[in-house]
Amino acid sequence: MIRKIQSGRVIEYSQFPVGNATKPRRGKKKGSTTDRKQDQNMRQAARRMAQSINCNFIPGDMWVTLKYDPKRMKKLEQRIRNDGLEVTPDTIRTYAISDRGNFLRRVERDMKKKGIELKYIAATSDIDGKTGELVRVHHHLILPAAAFESVFKKWSREEVDYKPLRNQDDYTPIAEYIIKQCRRQPDQKKYTCSRNLKKPVVVSEKIVVINRELKPPRGATVLYRSEYDREVPCQYVRYIAPPEKKKRGGKRE
After folding, report:
1. pTM of the model
2. Number of helices and strands (H, E) in the chain?
3. What are the Cα distances from residue 165, in Å, to 141, 159, 251?
């Protein structure tokens, strides 16, 4: 199968093997997920998040980090103890995700009063993306610029890091950075997003018999290209589509 997907100005061109349409019945999962499969899941999560950012957000929108200062962290841990649970990285993360949901609902209500619809992408992190060591829990959010006032109204200003999205066509680096900070928990979503986001468009999809090298169109800006192997029918190319040429001339009167 050769598939072409468009997210904003970014085109993803991929080739992968497909089998018989009648798939065998999936059996019960045996053992834990392998490291190789986990790596693949992380790459796919980053790719899906990048598609959502490219489709729905523009330069000037916000990349927000909500932090927990010692006082807020102490309150979070006390809530866990009040519910009769032990304070562990897993319970802290679970209660923090609940905080994130309450925060987004408050922001959504505040924006609704102004007649603005909220859209978002949200992920909760508690590890260092480089070392893999546990760090204090925090939240990454991609939000429209119109949510600026509501964010600082509903979360302490001192605990908010804010960066405007730069003028770039592909936000894959941001998605990869956020996903690397998400702990690898089985059967747990790496991030969540609002239901009103636009989805990437499948431009074309066709089945071919011969494994061939994928080549972006002339004038395209190649962002990433995996190596082509004649023996392995898998390849992935990501590029910025070339600008459309203006037609010259016209009909004579």
Report:
1. 0.86
2. 5, 10
3. 12, 19, 44
- Distance (Å, whole) CA 110 – CA 107: 5
Largest CA distance in the chain: 84
| Closest by CA position to 140, among listed 160, 170, 113 | 160
Q: Cα 245 from chain centroid?
A: 32
Q: 94-151 pLDDT, tens per residue? A: 999 999 999 999 999 999 999 999 999 999 999 998 888 999 999 999 999 999 999 9
Provide the 10 A C-beta neighbour count for residue 17.
9
Counting Cβ atoms within 10 Å, is residue 55 exposed (0-12), middle (13-18) or buried (19+)?
A: middle
Q: Of 38, 58, 12, 3, nearest to 198 (Cα)?
A: 58
Helix axes 172-180, 35-56, angle to 10 degrees: 140
How far apart (Å, rounded) are the C-alpha atoms in residues 193 and 179? 14
